[in-house]
Amino acid sequence: MTRVSARVPAVVALCAIAAVALRPARACAQMASTSSGVAPPVSRAMPKERVDAKLTAKLATLAQAVHGDVGIYVRHVKSGRTVRIRADELFPTASMIKVPILIGTFAAIAKGQFTFQTMMTYTDSLRYAYDDSLSMPRVGAQIPVARLTLQMITESNNTSALWLQGLVRGDTINAWLHEHGFDSTRVNSRVAGREKNRSAFGWGQTTPREIASLLVMIRDGRAVDAASSEEMYRHLTRIYWNGEALSQLPPWVQAASKQGMVDQSRSEVVLVNAPHGDYVFAVMTKNQADKSYEETNEGYTLIRAVSALLWREFEPGTPWTPSAAARRLKPPEEP
Known about the structure:
Layout: E1 27-28, E2 44-45, E3 50-51, H1 53-63, E4 69-76, E5 81-85, E6 91-92, H2 98-110, E7 119-121, E8 142-144, H3 145-155, H4 158-168, H5 170-179, E9 186-187, H6 195-201, E10 204-206, H7 208-219, H8 226-236, E11 255-262, E12 265-272, E13 279-286, H9 298-314
Parallel strand pairs: 3-5
Antiparallel strand pairs: 1-2, 4-5, 4-13, 6-10, 7-8, 9-10, 11-12, 12-13
């Protein structure tokens, strides 16, 4: 995965948006039982959260293996079964901030600022130092917005993400989050007034509950508008970096996700379109002692363990484990 520097340079922009109390989401996707395990969402009142003490204990035990701080949020959409472990505490987003940037991009398209087909001209000044040179176009190349959003989400390309953030402005993204009841999720880098937050959390910040709620909002067709939500969800189901949480799910099950990592943090948010109902989870770490970029990193190991446990818990009638040889076919972790 493309690494996100904890110190993305700050650039003077507009003032930061003040936080407001989070308003609970009023509706969410309801999974119908089908042979394929995938059905269109049906908006309805979301069942009240019902904390699952036994599942919480199992996940808390897994979290103890990480030398650092761990936050976990889990919600089975259909039943309301919930786990909250430091779920409302702030964590660095790293590349997960690209979900709010994606929403901001589609909100700008909906307002007519540009279109999904608008061609943008690449200049060398746009290049982010840590990006793979193979994904970089030649100077002067014409690139449609559609390809920038694909690269930002599927490949987690930072150049594309910063380009899009520059188009729609980080403070505008933060305003959208504020207006829709997200009081903790914010873009920090390149937003005036958020320098202290950037120093503490890097490019962006969120909580396990809020980043999971963003995915549910998109799945339910409530982010920007129905058409935008549909296309954003398609983006989030096409992920190159599938070595952690996604590796523990059957390949025939659709899942929307976004990953993020920086030296002392490993995080992933996933919404699984499971046969017996959608479930969403976010695993986030910070202050990790283990800064390695190997598959044995404590954060990566936790994410895989949580994903595997939740599949067994929510789909007990469909046992599945990855092939022993599957690991060698996953993308290498990148510093």
